[in-house]
Structure formats: C-alpha cells, structure tokens
Sequence to fold (348 residues):
Amino acid sequence: MKQILLITATILFIVLGISCTKEIEFNDQLLDPVLVVNSICTLNDTLKVDVSATKTIPGFESSFRFIPDATVKLYVDGVETEQLFYDSTLIKQNNSATYHSNTIVEYGKKYRVEVSHKDFNKVATAEMQMSNLVPILGFETEDVVKKGSNAEDSKLTKVTVRFLDPADEKNYYRLGVTVRIGKDQSYVNEAGDSVIMVQVMDHISYSEIESDDPVLATNSNADDIFSESSSFGYALFTDELFNGKTYDLDFYLSSWISEQLRGLNTLNREFYSINIELQSLTKETYYYIKSSSSSSIGDGLFTEPVQVFNNIENGLGIFGGCSSSVSRTEKGTYPIDGVKYYYGYSSF
Fold:
C-alpha cells in the first residue's frame, strides 16, 4: 500500500511539474549594449568624459569595453565649442577611455555632451549646469561629553562648520573630513641608538558622520533614497532648512579619533590636522551619489533593489559637477628635520 502511494505521489509531482513548466525564449536583442558616459566636472578645471559600453550579459565578458574611437562633442550654452580628444596612453594607465577638452568649467554656464559611435545606433546625450563654490567661513572644535543611548557617556570632539548658503536657488552638499594624526613611535635599537620616528595616519571620511544636526539627521527608512539622511553612507544634505542663510553645521568625530586627539603630546613631535571639505554638488551628482550609496545597503534576500540615478539620454551614466571649499586647522609641528615619517591611511 505504501509503495502504491509513493508511486502515485511521484507521478502526480511529475505531472504538476510538467504542467507548470513553460519554456521562455531568450531574447538577447533586449540586452544589446548601450553607451556609458561618465563625467563629474570640477569647477575651474577642464572638462573630461569617460566612454565605455554596458556588458551584454553580466559575467560573459572578462572586462568592460572601453571605447577609444567615439565622437564626443561639447556644447556650451547651446553652442558647439569643440570635439573632445582622446589620449591613447590613458587606457593603459587608468583602464579607461577618457576624452579631454580645452574648456574650463565655469559656474552659471550650461554644458551638454553628445557621444556617438559607429557600433551604436543612438547618440548618447546629457546636460548639466555647474554648481557654484560655497566657501567655508571657518570651523572650530571642542571636546564635549555626549549622552549615549545606552546611558553611557562618550567624550567626543565636536566640529562646527560655518558657511553662507547662496539664496534663491536649490543647493546640494556633501561633507568630507580628513584627520591626519602623527604619533611618536621612537625607540632604541639593538645598537643602543635612538631612532626618532613618527607614524602618520590619514583618516578619511565621506561616509556616515555622527551628528545631531537636523540636516544630517539619521533616517532609518532605507527605501526613501531621496530623504535627507546621512545613513546611506555619505554625509549628503540640501539647503532646505537654511536656504540663503549663514549656517553652523555640527557633527562629531568618532570616539576613536577623538580619543587619539586627546592623547597626543603636540609639544613633542606629535601633531594633528583636521581638513574639512564642503562640496557643492549639481543636482545630478547629488542624486547619483545618494542612489548609488542606497543601492549598496544590505544584501539580504528581501533587500529591495534601488535604481541608480542616470541622466544620460540613450545611454547610461552620470554627467554632473562639483566644486569644493576646504578649511584646515592643525596643532603641533610637522614636519621636523631629522624625524622619520611613515605613512598610512584608513577610513571612518
């Protein structure tokens, strides 16, 4: 009886499996490669454009196809100004096909690129208007005690950055921090000689920054890629809360960095410097960074995919801009004659 039931169940499983199976013809025409155009322009620098193509099937090719023989035209305020030129040495050095122009990117002008190639039926186009430089008016640091969520206090270095937001326009920002710390590692070698040595570490962050400031408030909703949150891995924000005003932006250095700064003897070879970079972004660059960082959050089974922002018509990629203002403070003497310096870096 059990054998009969087993045979019956097996036959039923096969029948149901066959009835639920439908062969779908693979249409490789839907996966035809398209042009990929990438350029993040920098204010007061020459415009450059990288050109490549998408893979037909992920993993099918060993590397991306970079295109060194495309036609890349540049328009400024609607007028064609030049055709960008390609340097054949760069594809070997940087593994990319970069096209160069003689045009210096300026604030207020509209830029448009048109990229064409004999292997692609459509011309890839994009345009953007450069963002203005927003200077840092100054910044200051102070040691504070911050109440923790678990009732444990933290001794942190608080940084306050002041800047004037341009009025009557929507502005997009990204905050970067670099802390250079020099720690004395001097020792006496086996011969009894003193070796004067300082280890220098650069701690770099464009990532999530701890802050109570409302423009950097943490948002736990990872589905909203356009929410004003630094929780996606970048300290991105807009001027929605302070449009046209002077603003003091507050954030904290990490507890580990703060502890390192407090423990330095800056009167004897040790030193530190803090660099604050305020990047003013075009709308395109802002949404590209916001969406690309959102797409890398989590890799669980139920993680919702996020489409990376793209402003290339008839192609893929990003055509945007960025201008940077940097302010610096330091304590201690660096460099010092006769001292050996060893360098490294980390991110936080």
Remarks:
- Confidence is low (pLDDT under 50) at residues 218-233, 295-303.
